[in-house]
Amino acid sequence: MAQLSVPSDRIAAMLAAIRDEVEPVVTLTHLLHLCRDEHRVLWERSGDTRTVRKVTVLVNKVAEELPLPGTTAVLEPPVRRALVVAFDQADDIPPVLIARALAELIDECYGHTFAHWFQRRSPYQPGVGDPVPLDSPDLREVTTMRSTSPPWRLAHRLDETRHVRLAGEWVVQFRVVFDYSLFDTLAGVVTADTVVATCHPNGSLGELDLTQGTQEGRFPVRPRDLGRQRTEIDRLVARATAAGASIVVLPELSVTEGLAMGLREWVQRPDGPRVLVAGSYHRQTGTDQAPGRRRNTAIAWVRGHEQPLTHDKYSPADRPVVEDIQPDGWPELRIYPTVDGWHLTIAICRDLLNPQAGNALSEAGANLILVPAMSETLMPFGGPVAHLVGANQAFIAVANNPGEWADGTDRIAARPARALFGHPGLGQQSRLVQPRDSGPGVALLNVRSAAITWLSEPPLTPVPFAVGADDIPQPPSRPTWLSQLLARAGTSGTSARRAGRPVWLRPAAVLVLLSDGPDGPRVLLTERAADLKDYPSELVFPGGALDQCDSGDPVAAALREAQEEVGLDPHCVQVIGLLAPMALPRSGFLVDPVLAWSADPLLSGSVNLAEVAALRHIPLRELAEWATRPSAGAPPHPPGVTAETIFSDPAPLGRMTATVIDQLLGMLPQRQTVLRTVVKERS
């Protein structure tokens, strides 16, 4: 049915509606509809100081009729009359400006009652133009890190207030359902002490059964050895909960329906997780005589809730395994609001990559998103995750499986990231977890600090590489000394020669910042986070790749990176010059060391804990002495670094870092013993 096109008719219809309406959410919705319809006038006149003053006077008269907070959840007759009178006294003021101000007033006064209104209608499925609940947990009580947006939202939209947003066309693309069945059960699901874990039981596709189905599509995909899979999952969940995890996510297609149902016992244990997303599984509805649709279903268990949470995948995979499922034509996004403002939802792998789905999740206010995945790469997930984190200050955990993508003909396996986390405190909003090996393990995200940890687990038993691997001739057994040699040389022995292709290096820069101390010159070093792909848990200079904003200047890049990583104020730094560039083929960088001096290094910003585990000012002389002492008397860590904050590696300095320090010591007036021992051992 066509909308009323004349503004005066729309305003008259709105006043007639709110004159007798007792529900604050409904009245607020009428006011926001006028704001949406007359958004051009609202934008043009909202900056007029004279008009704003008049609107404030009218709104204050309405505020005088409002009840005391908490005394009533409905609009009493005096309040309704005051709302209508405010428009009658508008004179030359555009009514849409009054509607906007009154919407914010009702939201502020009655916002605490909105959740109950939505809860009474659960499961609530909004249509276009209907109100959508917007709950915002106080992140200051959850994380000590600075969030990536203002206190409540990035943008000030015309069709929303702090607690309500009007639904758009996105509710036509998806069946969006707000399910309040866990409203009180999930109270406190995320706190400052919460740890989110992803568990990864499989190392390669050889551990999954891919033999059934047609050549064009595969169904069902399932673990090959169910007994081993259950044992491995139990072992990993136990490891995760022992590390403090209360939310655990398993990967896509890592279970069967029976295995997933059996995992309910974990949320019934006093030492188990509070929420367990038991991965997903292939299932076919109907009977053998009349088979129904093929589905990929995720299942989750919540402590204190008897029934499982289920969600069907609607975006089949097309690589590296063609997934032969038949999703519904109208996919559903189910949101579980909680009393403290969290909007929990489950998405399966590529569902998160659908731009329309990402927009729907963002519009619905999803801020706790748990994702089982099975993908050869998680790189495309970074954009949607960053968008949701930035828009809703969301926490996101993606659990990927398996650790290697290989078949019986390809002996060189691609190693994808095992997990991806989204956190408002991360500098890039998201972080991939890429351990060095493809074995089972657990990835942990600490909500308070955004610290990410990988806990590796040795596999239970050796597993055949893939289907058909038994036909491959096995090499003769190696002597012990040869295995030790290969291990120390860091070579896998899978290829006799390197591919003859050029290596392209990306320009980068590090800041070699010197300052003076009681023992002579000191250098600023950072300890890299243990979960980073490149140089994890090593002492290095702050730095990184050149961005477009650096205009090709390594000095600008080094200062910018130091400010982002450790909060160093660039104004306290005096640049001396550039040292010889160094090529790092393993990570693909050509690095310019920028030598600089500061009489008093000022750290005016915060340390990015997602990249930097610790910050150290270490005397060069002590670094040289530590590196050249006999092994029997060498301390386990360099001076100024404690065992509690570092790791057990006896030589934690990065190779390039040790080389630069070697050069610095060689250039000092009083030449000291240098770090060639470290460089030789690492070369």
List the helices and strands and how they pair.
Blueprint: H1 7-19, H2 24-37, H3 39-45, H4 49-63, H5 77-88, H6 95-110, H7 114-120, E1 131-133, E2 164-166, H8 170-173, E3 175-178, E4 195-200, E5 208-209, E6 222-223, H9 226-242, E7 245-249, H10 257-262, H11 265-268, E8 275-286, E9 291-302, E10 309-312, E11 332-337, E12 343-346, H12 355-363, E13 368-372, H13 382-392, E14 395-399, E15 419-422, E16 430-433, E17 441-446, E18 452-456, H14 480-489, E19 506-517, E20 520-528, E21 539-540, E22 543-545, H15 554-566, E23 574-578, E24 582-584, E25 589-597, E26 612-619, H16 620-628, H17 655-667, H18 676-682
Parallel strand pairs: 3-11, 4-7, 7-8, 12-13, 13-14, 19-25
Antiparallel strand pairs: 1-2, 4-17, 5-6, 8-9, 9-10, 11-12, 14-15, 15-16, 17-18, 19-20, 19-22, 20-21, 20-26, 23-25, 24-25
